[in-house]
Amino acid sequence: EEGFMGWSLRNFEQVDECSEIDDIIVFRDNGTMLVTKVADKKFIGKGVLHVAVWKKNDERTIYHLIYQDGPQGASYMKRFAVTGITRDKEYDLTNGTKGSKVLYFTANPDGASETVRVNLRPRPNLRKTQFDVDFGGLAVKGRGSKGNLLTRHIVQKVVQKERGGSTLGAIPIWFDETVRRLNESGHGRYLGRFSGEDKILAILSTGHYQFFPFALGTHFPDEALTIVKWDPETPVCAVYWEGEKQQYNVKRFLVEPARDPVLFITDHPESKLVLHTLVPSTGLSISFDKRSNDRPDEEVPLSEFIAVKGVKALGNRLTPYKVKDLRLTGDVFTVMTPELEEEQRMLITPDEVGHLEPPEEEGLERSPMEEFRRTQKTPPKTDNPDEPIIGYKPGKQMDLELD
C-alpha cells in the first residue's frame, strides 16, 4: 500500500521468491507498467496491482487488461505478453488519454483463458446492464496495442466468472541439476509436457513436499531431493525416523494440492526423513544390527506393507529390532522420457479393447474404444456362387452320388 517492494521488508505480504539478480515487473492501476531490478527496498509507486519476477522472452505469461480510456471514455480489453523491455522505463498500457484507469487485470502464467462478467452503470434507456465476455476469444498482441472495444457505456464493475484452460500448447520442460532451474532448451533431465494447471512436485529433505509452477526460470532449493511432474494418482512412500517414539515408521500417502510446503513426517525435533520413493514396485532392504540380534537381512515390499492413507497419518512401525542400514531396492522415481510420456498418453490399448462391452441401449453413440474394437473385426466373407466349394463349411449342403 505504501508503494515499496524488496526482500528486506518486514510484516509485508510476500508476493514471490527471487534472487538478487532478478528483474521485477510492476503493474499499476493507472495503466502503467515498469520493469526494474530487485532490491532490498525500493519505491515502485502507489496503486500497484501486480508485482512478480519477470523473465526475458517469456511468451507464456499472458496478461489480461480492461481499461477505461479517460474519465468518461469507452472501455477496451486486451491480451498481451511482455517479452522485452527497457529497464526502469514506464510503459503506458492504455491509449494514453489522461485520466485512464484499469478496470480489470490478471496475470496468467500459462496463457489461461477466463470469462469475466461486466456490470454497467445503470442509466435510462439502458436495457442490458450485465454481460459476459471471454478473453480466450482475443488474440495475444503486443503490450502497445489499443485493444478491442468492450463497451462505450460506463463500466461499474468487472469480476471473474469462470477460469478456463490454457490457450497455449503444452510446453516441454527440462530440469537442470547444475543450476537447479527449469528450461525448455533441453538441458538436464526431461520432466514432461506442461500446460494449464500442471504442477511440479518436490520432495524436500526436511520431510515436506512442495509445489512449484512450471514457469521457466523457476529455481528449486537445495533441500529438494526429488523433482518430478506431479501425478495426483501416484502415492509417495516415506520411511522416516519418528523422534518421539525413537523408531522407524513407514507411510504411504497421496499428495494433495497446497500453496505452502506440507510436512508429512512428525514435527518432533528429532524426526527426519530417511528414504522415499514414488515407484510402487520399489521395496526396502533392512540390515539389522548383528550385535543386538542375529536376524538375517529382510526385504520389505513397501506397497504391501502399508495401505495408502492420509498425509497426516503417522504410518506403521517398520521393525522393533535395531537397524544397521536401510536402502531402497528400486528407483526413487520414474525417469520421464518423451517416448514414455507418449505411451502414458495412449487411451486405447489392444488389451483394453478385448474387454470392452457394447452399449446396453440402442441409439447410444459408440465410445472411441468401442469404435476401435468394431473396426478391428474381420469383415464377413461373401461367397461367390461361381467358386467351387472346397472342404466342409457349416450350413452348406453337399450331395454325394454312390454307384
3D architecture notes:
The protein has helices spanning 302-305, 338-345, 350-353, 368-376; strands at residues 4-5, 23-28, 32-37, 42-43, 48-54, 62-68, 75-80, 91-92, 101-108, 112-120, 130-134, 140-141, 148-151, 155-166, 171-176, 181-183, 189-194, 200-204, 208-212, 224-229, 235-242, 247-254, 262-263, 272-277, 284-288, 298-300, 308-309, 316-317, 323-328. With 403 residues, it is mainly beta. It has two domains: 4-166, no CATH class; 171-328, DNA gyrase/topoisomerase IV, subunit A, C-terminal (Neuraminidase, 6 Propeller). The longest helix is centred in the C-terminal third of the chain and has 9 residues, at 368-376.
Strand content: 35-45%
> Cα distance, first to last residue?
114 Å
Number of domains: 2
Looking at the structure, what is the overall shape?
Answer: elongated
Structural category:
mainly beta
Provide a count of the helices.
4
Query: Low-confidence runs (pLDDT<50, min 5 residues)?
Result: 359-363, 388-396
According to DSSP, the number of beta strands is 29
Radius of gyration: 31 Å
Question: What composes the largest sheet?
Answer: 5 strands, mixed
**What is the helical fraction, as a range of percent?**
under 10%
